[in-house]
Amino acid sequence: MAPAQRAALPVASLSNGMWLKGDLHVHSRHSNESSNNPVRKIIAFSRSVGMDYVCITDHDNHVNGDVAHHTWADPEFTSDSLLLLYGAEWTTTRGHGNVFAAKPYDHQRLFDVRDQRDVAIGVVKKDLGIHLSANHPSGKDHFGYSYDLLESLEVWNSVLWSKNENAMMIWDDMLSSGRKLTGRGGSDAHHGVPDTPAQTTANSKQATANYVGTPTTWVFATTRTPQAVVDALTNGRVSISSNPFAPRVEFYADLDRDGTMDVMMGDNTPATGQPVAFRVQLAGTTIPTDEYTIRVVKNGAPFGTFPAHGQTHTAEFTDTPATDGRTYYRVVVEGPPTAYPQVPQAMALNGNMVGLSNPIYFNFDPNF
Ligand SMILES: [Zn+2]
Ligand SMILES: [Zn+2]
Q1: What are the E-state strand segments in the chain?
Q2: How confident is the model at residue 12 (pLDDT cuts 50, 70, 90)?
Q3: CA distance 250 to 283
Q4: Which of 24, 336, 355, 364 allows an S-S link to 249, with CB 3.0 to 4.6 Å?
């Protein structure tokens, strides 16, 4: 079938939703090596910096898979205002992955099949209906399973951006091969600020450099519910910022160049052979005179570099996605770091990385 005759894929509304921010990789006292990080401290801190959601992802091997009777059963695991996702860090001999779910699920089953063949794991994962995400894919304990088990990839782990350069390469390889995998962040924070000097541990200094929000993952959710957060993560309407106060990257495309944006990052649409106008917008910038650099990646290769400055912090470019084969575009934003006073050493460590978008996709097979 010629591309022009292909029915347009349904694209969700660009206006009917809200941006919610949170952290998708945090360890509480239910992970053995964490310190000074009870669930109540994570929740109170998350609220204090304006987070909308958080997923506490304790190591499941520390409780032999029974997160339901540890993290989730903790009387402190409750909040009226913060959306709490259900999850855990699947901690196996072949590496680490995070589960994200809106409701409790039978995590024990996933733990129990961890050493089986990927085909058997895939059956259990599908049956549980969970979102599975590879953690720190280019680092120690990288996800050593088939990426076909995944909905997303932790492309930005912790405040140390330099650790993630190789994760970009893995992500681009997956995207280039037709895998529409969402990129997301996770602080992987294990340690809280001690309440008293006597509680200080060798790792306590980490709490002042890497904690909830370094980085922050934004999702464009249709409602303020845990399910909508997970759905947005699966659909890729997601961007990552170095901290909760750093600018949020929004990436849109105007397919017919009528001045109205038609799709955003995460969306997949047929290529028509006509030029497409793209817009990168930095929301929540705090200093109007700041200048940012937008680097556009097309199909894994550099496409162009554009400045964003002034009050609007917008960059625009035009390109014609090929009608033959797949094309994706994603953007990397660099520039002045934004202060995060609640985690005072973070700014110095994250360098000039400001944010990452997810891709806008053309001609990806929705049934892949
Ligand atoms: Zn891990
Ligand atoms: Zn972890």
Answers
A1: 18-26, 53-56, 83-92, 95-101, 131-134, 152-157, 182-186, 216-221, 238-241, 248-254, 263-264, 268-269, 276-283, 292-298, 301-308, 314-319, 327-334, 353-357, 360-362
A2: confident
A3: 7
A4: 355
SS3 326: coil
Q: How far apart are the first and last CA of the chain?
A: 17
Ligand found nearest the CA of 27: 2
- pLDDT, residue 312, reads 76
CA of 188 to the centre of ligand 2 (A): 5
Distance of CA 260 to the CA centre of its chain: 27
pLDDT in tens, 226-283: 999 999 999 999 999 999 999 999 999 999 999 999 999 999 999 999 999 999 999 9
Ligand having the closest approach to the CA of 190: 2
Ligand nearest to the CA of 137: 1
Contact 145, 118 (CB under 8 A): yes
User: pTM for this structure?
Assistant: 0.96
Q: How many A from CA of 363 to the centre of ligand 2? A: 35
What distance in angstroms lies between residue 314's CA and the mean position of ligand 2's atoms?
35
Q: Which of 262, 257, 240, 260 is nearest to 330 (CA)?
A: 240
pLDDT digits (tens, 9 = 90+) for 202-215: 999 999 999 999 99
Distance 25 CA to ligand 2 centre (A): 6
Q: What is the mean pLDDT of residues 177-195?
A: 97
Yes or no: say if 254 and 261 are a contact pair by the CB < 8 Å rule. yes
Q: What is the pLDDT of residues 221-239, one digit of tens each?
A: 999 999 999 999 999 999 9
pLDDT tens string 21-32: 999 999 999 999
Measured from the Cβ of residue 5, the count of other Cβ atoms closer than 10 Å reads 7
* DSSP category for residue 282: E
What is the whole-number distance in angstroms between the Cα of residue 184 and the centre of ligand 1? 14
- Looking at all shown ligands, the one closest to residue 141's CA atom is 1
Q: Indicate which ligand has the atom closest to the C-alpha of 143.
A: 1
**pLDDT value for 310:** 65
